[in-house]
Design goal:
The chain has 465 residues and is mostly helical. It has 19 helices and 2 strands.
Length: 465
């Protein structure tokens, strides 16, 4: 990185993402999302108690999703205080569960799940609007390492479930408390409710892909785990390999995200087909493929939705995602399970057939998705530049100087603080050079300056070289 980039706090990477962009001084943001996922999963279990014909596991999911749905209605200024209250509540409930209560008190498990939903709601907010691409990828890797090492190895292979539910859960909750109370209120961004530019309209495609991912994942889980045919050792080994594979592809290769998505879909289909066969060889091969596709699919879809949210940078996107998460957890998942339970012995063939239809539809739509989603600058970044430090400055400028900057002018303001040329800005924004010059002229007029050099001197505190 050049001296000028170091002074500006920038990290430019032509491949689009680099772990050099991780802001270690803001470690509390990086760990919030994975900790919220982990501390909810580690105590999500069926305790053998039913109420209103629903078992405890379903009620815990309902309690979690109800808390996430609460963020659909919350004013933005209440998001952080709500998450802090949830973190305190989950710590108190965990201590009560560990030392004072019998194991079958359903209300305590429901309260724990509800508190975790409050924590994870803020975790989604941080993941979407505060983390950059490298930090999102790092946090997703942490989540997957927990599932591979904590669940598949410690819990299932070594039978350390009691340790994971109590001592490990206490450490996770304590770390989350530390992170969230280290979070300064002034570092939580203030979002617009709706996107001013029509460019933000294509981010809703990420919701479609998220829903498609959940369908394929639920079909695979219902087929594989209901029949208990997945080989644990091969599955775990493949999950670790998938983490390394995703890191290699995203950090080293210039691979279109669409190819990664199609890779996940095709592997899911092959894994389900092989696991439906009777041969031990094919079952082992299917277990290995399923481990790769499940891990890579989780990382790809959440990375994709996170990038789409950052592209949108609106409260509306966050609220609609919370609503979608509620619908998938409370309505779709139980509904699909009920349908397959009523089918009988042929559910595996129907699940496989439905997966084939979904994969074919996605592949058929690939050219359209390629134009409107995966070639957008928030997915295959030409320049992954750490510009978060200027976002707050831009908000202060627009407020103090009473500027009415458009969405495109705000984009230009941030990009002009970097080393990219006007032609590179045009390519980055997928517009013509004439469009860049037009908006630049309007930006200079509103800022009361005449050139990009004046912009750098006034707002970046250094002239161009």
């Amino acid at each position: 990185m050049s001296e000028r980039e170091e002074q500006a706090g920038l990290a430019v990477n032509k491949r689009g993402i680099s772990f050099a962009n991780i802001r270690y001084q803001q470690w509390y943001f990086v760990f919030l999302f994975p900790l919220a996922i982990i501390m909810g999963d580690v105590r999500l279990l069926d305790i053998g108690v039913s109420w209103l014909s629903l078992d405890s596991f379903v009620w815990e999911l309902i309690a979690y999703s109800a808390a996430v749905l609460l963020f659909f209605f919350l004013p933005q200024k209440r998001i952080l205080p709500t998450a802090k209250a949830g973190s305190v509540l989950i710590a108190l409930v965990l201590l009560y569960q560990m030392f004072l209560m019998p194991d079958d008190q359903l209300w305590a498990y429901l309260l724990y799940s509800f508190a975790d939903g409050l924590c994870l709601g803020f975790g989604f907010f941080v993941f979407f609007f505060i983390l950059n691409n490298a930090e999102r990828l790092f946090s997703l890797i942490l989540v997957e390492l927990y599932f591979v090492i904590g669940v598949d190895y410690l819990w299932l292979t070594l039978d350390l479930g009691a340790f994971m539910m109590n001592q490990a859960a206490f450490v996770f909750v304590l770390c989350f408390l530390l992170c969230i109370f280290f979070t300064p209120k002034e570092q939580v961004p203030v979002l617009a409710f709706k996107q001013e530019s029509t460019n933000g309209e294509k981010t809703w495609f990420s919701f479609v892909l998220y829903a498609l991912y959940m369908v394929v994942e639920l079909l695979a889980i219902y087929l594989n785990y209901d029949t208990s045919i997945v080989e644990p050792i091969l599955y775990t080994s493949a999950s670790l390999l998938a983490i390394l594979l995703v890191l290699w592809v995203l950090l080293t290769l210039r691979v279109n995200a669409l190819h990664l998505w199609n890779f996940f879909l095709v592997l899911s289909l092959l894994a389900m087909a092989l696991l439906s066969l009777d041969s031990l060889l094919w079952v082992n091969a299917g277990s290995f493929l399923y481990g790769i596709c499940r891990t890579s699919g989780y990382i790809i879809i959440f990375y994709l939705v996170g990038c789409a949210a950052r592209r949108s940078y609106t409260l509306q996107f966050f609220r609609w995602f919370c609503l979608l998460e509620f619908f998938v957890t409370v309505v779709f998942t139980p509904g699909l399970e009920s349908i397959f339970s009523s089918i009988g012995d042929h559910y595996n063939l129907i699940a496989l057939g439905l997966t084939i239809v979904l994969v074919c539809c996605s592949l058929f739509l690939s050219p359209y998705l390629n134009r409107h989603l995966f070639f957008s600058d928030w997915i295959d970044d030409l320049y992954s530049v750490n510009l978060e430090q200027y976002q707050k400055q831009l908000q202060e400028i627009t407020q103090s100087e009473n500027l009415n900057l458009t969405y495109r002018e705000r984009q230009l303001f941030l990009l002009m603080l970097t080393d990219v040329t006007p032609k590179e800005i045009a390519a980055h924004l997928h517009v013509s050079l004439a469009t860049v010059n037009f908006h630049s002229t309007n930006l200079y007029r509103k800022l009361g300056i005449q050139s990009r050099r004046e912009l750098l001197i006034k707002y970046a505190n250094h002239p161009p070289q």
